[in-house]
Amino acid sequence: MAIQQRAERTRQEILSAAARVFDGHGYERASLARIAGEARVTTGALVFHFATKADLATAVRGRARAVTRITVESACLSTEGVGGTAIDKLVIATHALIRLFETDPTARAGERLARELQLTDPGLSGDCPWRREVARLARYAEAEKALRPGVDATAVAALIGYVITGVELEMRGPNTAPAGESWPPEEPRTAENGALHGPAEQRLARIWALILPGLVHPAGRRHGA
């Protein structure tokens, strides 16, 4: 039992290290040796748990899907007791996602891997819990007649998806492309250096303030960003 527990701890440490490396360097520039060094294990120990970099990427994306799904579901549940509408839930869920992306390297790694690997496997685009939840809430908003006449739920979901992706990419700095370096190791992202918490959510709030009037039916406009 103790051996199994140690093996599971090592596996989880490798996954956390892989998430940090994928987040910071992208899929192509990540290597098993670099991930093993980040996890402080030998390459042989890493390969014992994950035979290939693709296996690691799949596992990290699985973790990321789980944490983003829990985040959006919890955010939506937080409005249940106060009669939150679908639009309220959309706003709250997107803010929760941005807070998650600001603080969780696994969630960020999942987003980066999804973008980069989608270039070789377009089918991965539908494998995203938060996008599915955004689409569901947009349909509910349409059913509640909360959207302006002529505003299509599918277009709303796509717009919000672009907004979230854009804000998440902007967190990575002005010189970051999906396949390039993210943050240099000598500048770790911490609350102390101002790279975490606050600015991204403020940008999202300003975006919501701009787009809500064009989306929401005037008779039901009571939603804050």
TrEMBL record:
Residues 31-50 bind DNA. This is Transcriptional regulator, TetR family. Coiled coil: none annotated. Pfam families: TetR_N (PF00440). InterPro entries: Homeodomain-like_sf, HTH-type_TetR-like_transc_reg, HTH_TetR, Tet_transcr_reg_TetR-rel_C_sf. Residues 8-68 form the HTH tetR-type domain. One of its GO terms (molecular function) is transcription cis-regulatory region binding. It comes from the Bacteria. Residues 173-194 are annotated as: Disordered. Keywords: DNA-binding, Transcription, Transcription regulation.
